[in-house]
Specification:
With 345 residues, the chain is mainly alpha-helical. The chain has helices spanning 2-8, 14-30, 34-46, 61-66, 69-79, 95-106, 181-207, 242-259, 263-282, 289-302, 309-319, 325-340, and strands spanning 164-173, 215-223, 228-238. A three-stranded antiparallel sheet has the order 1-3-2.
Length: 345
């Protein structure tokens, strides 16, 4: 099949490398706009102590210009082998038939690298109904400095093409796989806390004829790619009113941290979240295979447990009685405390 040819039988001809080289160089030029410069500045500031700012996925221009087919062949023969791969199959399938098909197509491929070298064999799993094994980590490990204020304390980008104002406050935490009920319970709490902030921000904007900001967004990302958890709060508004936007956002976040939610507010948000999980479960059969594939790959990368929409709904109903006002307000303080104190919590 095509996938088998790509993974193990690639020709890597010199003329093809030259053709693709120009495509990659064009892509490099296309990614040098202001948005990418802002993203690069963010990475430089947030991950300065790691290799991330100097290892963007597109690579180095010198390597792209000078690489030859013999170099790519060496890389291909070293890293493209079955023991270095995961295969995900999503669809209305018979697992045993798929296993037999995989064995017939790929069974004759050498397990070890064609270029030689050591190899470790990860335990295989046929179905994702349990905690998935995290993909083996290779290369230089990311070493973060957690719970310390970065130096300098902030970074800024100014440019005539930036017509609006963004300010993002972020905090890094250690990465942890989501494999137990307590992890999912925290995920439910985080969803409710995020919904509370979004609801209050929307209410404030609707009450004011000239709202101080366009948006106030919170993101809590468990990111194996960056090797950490990113807790970020971003306010977006007009450049000329940036002080008002920051002040209004800080007041809103501080009010949640200081006073918390009220019971009627929490009850309403729980009902909304429950209904969303019910809809997800009802529409599970219409989920795109690509979306499911992406989620499976994320679980494989992070070592997370994979849950279907129906399983998530059942678990939410079981854990809902444990979602109290005290618990949710304590979680809000944990998540938003750093932003309400100017990043010094």
């Amino acid at each position: 099949g095509l996938l088998h040819q790509m993974t193990f039988k690639a020709l890597i001809r010199e003329e093809d490398v030259d053709s693709e080289r120009n495509a990659v160089l064009n892509e490099m030029r296309d990614t040098s706009d202001i948005d990418d410069r802002v993203a690069s500045k963010y990475y430089e500031h947030m991950f300065n102590e790691t290799l991330l700012p100097r290892r963007f996925p597109i690579g180095k221009e010198k390597i792209v210009r000078e690489a030859r087919s013999v170099d790519l062949r060496r890389f291909y023969d070293t890293h493209y082998h079955p023991s270095n791969m995961h295969m995900f199959v999503v669809g209305d399938i018979d697992p045993e038939e798929i296993r037999d098909l995989i064995e017939r197509v790929y069974g004759d491929e050498p397990v070890k690298p064609r270029a030689g070298g050591p190899v470790s064999l990860p335990e295989s799993r046929l179905t994702p109904d349990d905690v998935m094994h995290a993909w083996p980590l290779r290369g230089k490990q990311l070493s973060h400095t957690f719970y310390q204020e970065p130096a300098p304390g902030f970074a800024q980008v100014r440019h005539s093409q930036l017509t609006s104002f963004f300010m993002s406050m972020s905090m890094k935490e250690e990465l942890e796989s989501n494999a137990k009920n307590r992890h999912v319970y925290e995920e439910f709490l985080d969803s409710l806390v995020g919904m509370a902030l979004d609801s209050r921000a929307q209410e404030l904007r609707s009450q004011l004829g000239d709202p101080p900001f366009y948006g106030l967004d919170w993101n809590y990302l468990n990111s194996p790619r960056e090797g950490c958890v990113l807790d970020s709060l971003t306010v977006h508004g007009e450049a000329r009113n940036w002080k008002s936007a920051v002040r209004a956002a800080a007041d809103l976040v501080s009010s949640i941290v200081k006073y918390g939610l009220v019971q009627t507010e929490l009850d309403r948000l729980v009902k909304i979240l429950l209904r969303q999980f019910e809809l997800d479960a009802e529409q599970a059969e219409t989920q795109e295979s690509a979306d499911m594939m992406g989620r499976l790959q994320e679980c494989g990368e992070a070592g997370d447990a994979y849950m279907t929409a129906a399983q998530r709904l059942v678990l939410f109903r079981q854990l809902e009685p444990a979602i109290s006002l005290d618990v949710i307000n304590h979680r809000a303080q944990q998540l938003y405390g750093f932003a309400s104190t100017g990043g010094k919590a």
